[in-house]
Amino acid sequence: DHDYFKKINVPFDRPLPLVGNLLGIVLQKESIVEITTRNYYKYKDYKVYGFFNFLQPSFMITDPELIKKITIKDFDHFLNHIEAFEIDRLFSRTVFAMRDKKWRDMRTTLSPIFTSSKMKIMFGLLGEQSNDFVKFMHEQVESGKNLNVEVAEIFSRYTADAISTAALGFKGESVRNEKCEAYTILKLMQNNFNGSLGALKFLLAFTLPKVYKFFDIQLVGKEVNDFFKRIVIDEINLREKKNFYRPDMIQLLLQARKGQLKNEEINENDLSNFSAHTEFDVSLKNEKMSHFEDLDWIAQGFVMFGAGFDTSTDLLQIICYELSFNKNIQNDLIAEIDKIDAVETISYETLHKMKFLDMVVSETLRKWPPAGQLDRCCNKEYKLDLENGKSVIIEKGKNVFLPVYQIHHDPDYYTEPEKFNPYRFSDENKENLVPGTFLPFGIGPRACLASRFALMSVKLILVKILNDFKIEPCEKTPAKLTYQANINFKFNEKIFLNFIPRSK
Ligand code: HEM
């Protein structure tokens, strides 16, 4: 219905048949960043505009106040992600794709796993893994290899190990052995989602969901399914039988499954963790908890890997990229690190007291948000109040998108937005940030479940690398980064950087 937005007085661009307003994506000519940026500025004064996500009329909400309203205050109208995420039997059971009461119950069950008190327990496991990574870098240098490397490649192996050890209950070995099982599975998963066949399946799920369902197409392969069954269910059973304890997420999942976990926060008031998300209580009081099956728990193991792998790797590589070009900032960060005695055994508190580190990470997440767009599906009709008494009705079932990347680059909120400037997040300046304009981990009760974990693991490895190495651009370092012409927020360019041992 091409007149959909005209009838409800919402500005929009005329769509084309089938592809809607996403011709540039289908022809692989434009990235989602380019398409959204154009309309963001064109329609910014209206606070909301319409576009056709293939056949579906959808809303883009550009105003931070409205974004806060729908994601926090009136959250119960926009509880879920869009339905296209129910694209696979395993994936649809992850807390990311679950809907309504099931989601509330699963989120309530899992959230104690990611509180600061539990992060502190997991910190020890990450310490070992990160020391091992730095040792591996030194070994490379000692064996005469230079460290002129493609950073996503080595960092993805570190991230795999960090998630393996902390989330999945076994010590990772991806850094030293890229043929190991966990890394192979991760690569398969990446391919299931981002490969050309995966992209085609997503496209079909968006454009012709009935056809997708009819042919019972799945996204996740059998090897991946079997792997997670083994590491989650078999491992939980084994631990119960043998009374074996390891301070990782599998242990917490085991307790969470029995409803034995409590929400304990440690006092974080004097810690610097600006981007971390604060959990909301989404439980329905006086209602019985949903029953979850083995497959639901397997899916949560899967999502820890799936949601954390690319995002954390991207963040890590892009911080290093920015630091390589911004020498002064890198030196200031190194100066902060050099104030710490024994970086190898740095504590959770000390890491989270590093103010400049926190500023650098926040600024990277602003300039290069790994998830540059958020989505919600309206599950209860909603009256979106605009100014001057005007309003728009969003019907049940319609999708709403939030332009994170564009807000993070809007000069109204961030002066000289293309400049990498961590001082935007200094104690004085962060007071002046406009609420609702910093969204790297999403916003509201549906935001990232594991922001604390992601921030902790990225900060830790960064501190350990910079304690021993300087990061410099090399011949193959791209001068500029451009986004791929699809919806994935991935770069066309591979980032190569040079790690040079520091003489101390
Ligand atoms: C730098 C790394 C990461 C970034 C930038 C990131 C970002 C995000 C974003 C933007 C969302 C959607 C939020 C929304 O719609 O409001 C999300 C959801 C989620 N993330 Fe992360 N994430 C990261 C790392 C991780 C890690 C390491 C894990 C797991 C170990 C994880 C688990 C999840 C889960 C389970 C959800 C779905 C939550 C729900 O729907 O209830 N993420 N993340």
Automatic annotation (TrEMBL):
Localization per Swiss-Prot or TrEMBL: Endoplasmic reticulum membrane; Microsome membrane
Primary subcellular site in the record, as a coarse category: endoplasmic reticulum
The protein, known as: Cytochrome P450
Protein family: Belongs to the cytochrome P450 family.
Function field: May be involved in the metabolism of insect hormones and in the breakdown of synthetic insecticides.
Protein residues bound to heme: C448
Organism name: Polypedilum vanderplanki
Membrane topology: Peripheral membrane protein
Pfam entry (one): p450
Lineage: Eukaryota, Metazoa, Ecdysozoa, Arthropoda, Hexapoda
Entry-linked InterPro entries: Cyt_P450, Cyt_P450_CS, Cyt_P450_E_grp-IV, Cyt_P450_sf, Insect_CytP450_Detox
Stretches of the chain forming a coiled coil according to its record: none
Cofactor: heme
